Amino acid sequence: MNNTLAVYPGSFDPVTFGHIDIIERASRLYPNLIVAVLGNSAKKSCFSLEERTDMLRAVLGNKKGIEVDSFDGLLVTYMRNKRANILVRGLRAISDFEYEFQMALFNKSLDDNIETVFLMSRAEYSYVSSRLIKEIAVHGGDISSFVPHIVVEKVHEKLQFN
Ligand code: ADP
């Protein structure tokens, strides 16, 4: 088992301070962390795969040990190719639990080497979600406390052209 490499997958549509907090904390636990952006989600994304990965790269800069990548298809296949078996997910509230529990069990049944590790959200970000960020912005609300400045700009740009 490779205990030095972890994968944090998600849609990141767009990246929020909640995600960034999980990334920073996971990277303290694991010297190498891949933030893996999901291309083919059942959820229709607001930002393209390229926009989502670009925002993450811009926000994270060149932090040692953190890589931003993207994947399509099954996460377990992606992780096998990367020779990674630690899967990091964030938990905000009980409402996340059921879905995350199901996903963790599914992934474990697809590949028994995969261990899902959950990090609890920081209290101040426990109600922050990409979906609500977009909803608040559509209605003219201020999202600057929840996402980095560069993401605020990208969200506003996106709304202008929609
Ligand atoms: P997905 O579409 O895979 O759920 P998201 O980008 O919405 O992707 O989330 C990726 C992971 O980050 C999930 O485990 C989610 O629960 C977690 N997450 C999202 N927002 C927060 C937050 N504010 N605090 C902690 N974890 C979060």
Automatic annotation (TrEMBL):
Q: Where does ATP bind?
A: S11, F12, H19, G90, L91, R92, E100, Y125, S126, Y127, V128, S129, S130, R131
- Per the UniProt record, the site (Transition state stabilizer) maps to H19
Q: Where in the cell is it found?
A: Cytoplasm
* Domain Cytidyltransferase-like per the UniProt entry, residue ranges: 7-135
Q: Name one GO biological process term.
A: coenzyme A biosynthetic process
Alphabetical list of Pfam families matching this protein? CTP_transf_like (PF01467)
Role of this protein: Reversibly transfers an adenylyl group from ATP to 4'-phosphopantetheine, yielding dephospho-CoA (dPCoA) and pyrophosphate.
Q: How does it assemble?
A: Homohexamer.
Protein name from the UniProt record: Phosphopantetheine adenylyltransferase
Species this chain originates from: Candidatus Auribacter fodinae
